Amino acid sequence: MSELEGLMEKLKMETLAAQLDALLEHAAKRDLSLREFLTEALQAEWSGRNLKTTEGRMRLARFPWIKTLEGFDFSFQPSIDRKVVRELAGLAFIGRAESVIFLGPPGVGKTHLAIALGVKAVAAGYSTLFLTLEELNLRLARARATGRLEAVLAQLARPKLLILDELGYLPFSREEASALFRLLSRRYERGSVIITSNKGFADWGEIFSDTVLATAILDRLLHHSTTVNIKGESFRLKEKRRAGMLTSAKEEPRARREEEEADISGAPAELELAETTASS
Question: pTM, whole model, 2 decimals?
Fold first, then answer.
């Protein structure tokens, strides 16, 4: 091992060590000055470190899949105000610790938009965590059973952005609703929350089986928030129709019911309820 290789190892310049020969060859061909070569070498190392950091944050975010705003078909959901989504994509709402709520029936793209904003947040350096409400309730129930509820609530308060998906598909017990209120209270004006729900705000009292608690939860969420109400057709039904799986209008109500049941039954199997979470 040369002295240079030893120094790069001590400085943990893994990317630069791997690319050094190529960078030297490139510098010689372009007749770069020492300053220009050093700039390119350090830029390569920084890019490599930044990529690894982003990949680490992406793993901690626990997205079930990766979605982007570029991949969203806004023409199919004309009810969405693109200007509002563009403003959200600037991520200023995270800096202001504001909430975003996506409302709409199953399959209209609520989770897609929530994940797409989460992916942008990770790329911008924000700690992010994605959970379905079912996963959240299971995690908090486990914490209560082991006497660790306060510790887990503290963990969930740390990410700069917390995404809670599928509120409304399953009813909350009073204990679960109370734990959600405590979590949102901890994050109030400290960290951003994105929530997706198939129920309008007027129905949240039914979800939480307590109108007073539902009002308190909405008070925390809506004080500083943006609500995107999506009124459109299901992307999944569109794809079924395109594939010829729906041949008549009579089949569509049944397909919608099956779609809602699929949403309720849930999250991908690979999502494990690990107790780790990103730090802010």
Answer: 0.76
